[in-house]
Amino acid sequence: MKKIVFFLFCILIFGGNVMADSIKSKQEIIKKENLKSIKGDSKIFSGEVRVTLLFKEETYRPFSAGLVEFEAGVRSAWHTHPAGQSLIVTKGEIYTGTEEGITQIAKEGDTILCPPNVKHWHGAGLKQGGSHIALTGIKDNNNVVWLEKLSDEEYERAIKEAK
């Protein structure tokens, strides 16, 4: 009886691992029409923003991705990412600033690399919209810590200084 129980236990353990490995090895395509798109929350964005979740994190992929589309003059609130973030600019220009007062401009095709826990904001310019794909790491089940909004005055000054 002990041998049978041990045998069944081995099948359960090793068979489960084989099954889990086969699931991990299958590719998946998420069709464009199945992507969820939402209006950005006014508590964390100043103005009209459209956010499309491209994919969520998985055990084999410790990050998520989203397409963020900003209208002209729109930006995020200040925030940090416990596991960092990378932004790939897909349209227009994206401005990004840090609490040290450094504002940079990334153009279509450029990538913005933000290390963990750097306080920053990002968004479009004053007269032109822009979009980026955000690849955001996950640490301890958290991908972002939202902070206060960037004021109109801070934003306009940052844009002028970046040019």
Looking at this protein, list some descriptive labels.
globular, alpha+beta, single chain, about 160 residues, Jelly Rolls, 2 helices, disordered N terminus, two-stranded antiparallel ribbon, eight-stranded antiparallel β-sheet
CATH topology: Jelly Rolls
Shape: globular
> Any idea what the CATH architecture is?
Sandwich
> From the structure provided, what is the oligomeric state, counting identical versus distinct chains?
single chain
Mean pLDDT: 89
Helical segment tally? 2
Mind sketching the topology for me?
Blueprint (H helix, E strand, L loop, with lengths): L1 H23 L11 E4 L5 E2 L2 E7 L7 E8 L4 E2 L2 E2 L4 E14 L4 E5 L3 E4 L5 E4 L6 E8 L7 E2 L5 H11 L1
Antiparallel strand pairs: 1-3, 2-5, 3-4, 4-11, 6-12, 7-8, 7-9, 7-10, 7-11
Structural description of this entry:
This protein is α+β, with helices and mostly antiparallel strands and about 160 residues long. It has a single domain, classed as Jelly Rolls. It is about 20% helix and about 40% strand. It is built from 2 helices and 12 strands. It has helices at about 1-25, 150-160; strands at about 35-40, 45, 50-55, 65-70, 75, 80, 85-100, 105, 110-115, 120-125, 130-135, 145. The strands form 3 sheets. Strands 1, 3, 4, 7, 8, 9, 10 and 11 form an 8-stranded antiparallel β-sheet that branches. Strands 2-5 form a two-stranded antiparallel sheet. A two-stranded antiparallel ribbon has the order 6-12. A hairpin with a 7-residue loop joins strand 3 (about 50-55) and strand 4. The longest helix has 23 residues, at about 1-25. The N and C termini lie far apart (about 80 Å). About 20% of the residues are buried.
